Amino acid sequence: MSSLKDEKVFHEEGDGTVEDVDIIPSDLPVHLGEDVAYGPSGIAGVIQSPFVFAAALIASMGGFSFGYDQGVISIINVMDQFHDVFPYATSGFGKGFMTAMLEFGAFIGCFFMPWLADKISRKKAIFVVTIFFNVGAVLQTAAVNYEMLVLGRTIGGIGVGTLAMGAPLYISEIAPPNLRGTLLVLESISICLGVVVSFYITYGTRHMDGEIAFRLPLGLQMVSATIVGFGIFFFPYSPRWLALVGRNEDALANLSRMRRLPADDERVQTEYKGIVAEAQFQKTVLERRHPGKHGIRLEILTWLDLFSPNTWRRTVVGCGVAFFQQFSGINAFIYYAPTLFQSLGQSEQMALDMSGVFNILQFVAVCVCFFIIDRVGRRPLAIFGGLGGLVSWGIMAILVGLFSDNWKAHSAAGWGAVAMAFMFILTYGVSYSPLGWALPSEVFPTATRSKGVALSTATVWLCNFIIGLITPPMIENIGFGTYVFFACWCGLAAVWAFFLVPETKGKSLEQMDEVFGDNSGQEEREIMQATAAQVMRSGVPTQQV
């Protein structure tokens, strides 16, 4: 590569003039948008950014739809009215297959969402996939046989998976660095809230006579998806997506609108330059990696880029946190909480009550994470969550192994196991529950972010599908071994986080190259610095919205 050391950089002055300055690309920061500060992190920063918060809140309601679909099946699975219409769902496999097909559909949906999000924008893609969600909800609500029910859950799953991917992607790209972690926790809060709401709706409708007991809660899932689909149009396009498609002036206008600052504000200009430089850098790198490639071939090659030497660690972090989020055992409880609590010695009614408390505790824990994630950081929470899960599942395994043959004679041990279940959900709620959605959305570079988030989200759904399918037979056949199984995975999660997860708090998306060390190669550094020079030379449009 030819040297760039003799090139000068020009930039616009505040009065509109252009000054020739003896700054060379090698003197420039690798990322122009680094260290942009818009205010405090956490709730104080959210109060100062109401517009971004509102946009993130609407987008995160896609997570509510996901959580609702998870929670609604928990009590429906033990309803006599449901079993009268769908008797095959009473068997271990029939129950697991019907439950898990939602996740299988979500897994499929993840692979067309990146193309859709890059082609028509993040926010329009969110609208489109709410249609899939509602079609699936209609089929589930009107199902007259097991096959129709499974088809509805599969189609609805396509909508769930794409919503769960699209929302964090959009949020990560509109949030300022000081609030990104906090706002991404909204996705997890919405998921937990959806679980709680759907659980108590079905808790109430289970006393109704006839099919309305399960059809009403199945139909209500359309409400939140419809709100997301139409509400998202009241908010701007992602500035980073606009920069990727060459609409730089629109990117600046939307960034100014979301930051509630003039377009010529120094912080807005700095962040804007960083966004444009990063987008141009990623395009340049893509052209150099795959010269002359177009269409399907380029699409396949860009997927393979996720496993290149410069990107594999990001992929390990994004997919790893998704894997351990599911293999922590969370959805064994979410889907089959009444069954699991009965296996811990509780009566049928008490198992339902404890399931409700379990879901509420997760919601509370995730809300706590909303306040602390940008202060504590991602890595310490990931290590803490793994160790907490190891201890909780391990003690449950010991108690179940020793006393499950006669819980009535050892009620204290049964309640001890319940306490460990509550300890697990509290540690999970402040760690892997939000991290599974937050980390993948912030670790990938602009040009591969939609595919990276898609692959991470697909990992969530594939693992979710596996857990939903295997949990009922595991509980029936290996007893306390089920708890040992999840304890081991939580222990591995702590080891993985300690050795492979870097700290990303307070970093802009454009700084992630430095966090992961991807940009240490001299050629890529020179490309980025040359791109920074080009962006500064071209100046920043200053029209306001």
From TrEMBL:
It is found in: Membrane. It is a multi-pass membrane protein. The chain crosses the membrane at residues 51-76, 96-116, 125-144, 150-171, 183-203, 218-237, 316-336, 356-374, 381-403, 415-440, 452-471, 483-502. Residues 55-505 form the Major facilitator superfamily (MFS) profile domain. GO terms for cellular component: membrane. Pfam families: Sugar_tr (PF00083). Gene3D superfamilies: MFS general substrate transporter like domains. It comes from the Eukaryota. The keyword Transmembrane helix applies. Belongs to the major facilitator superfamily. Sugar transporter (TC 2.A.1.1) family. This is General substrate transporter.
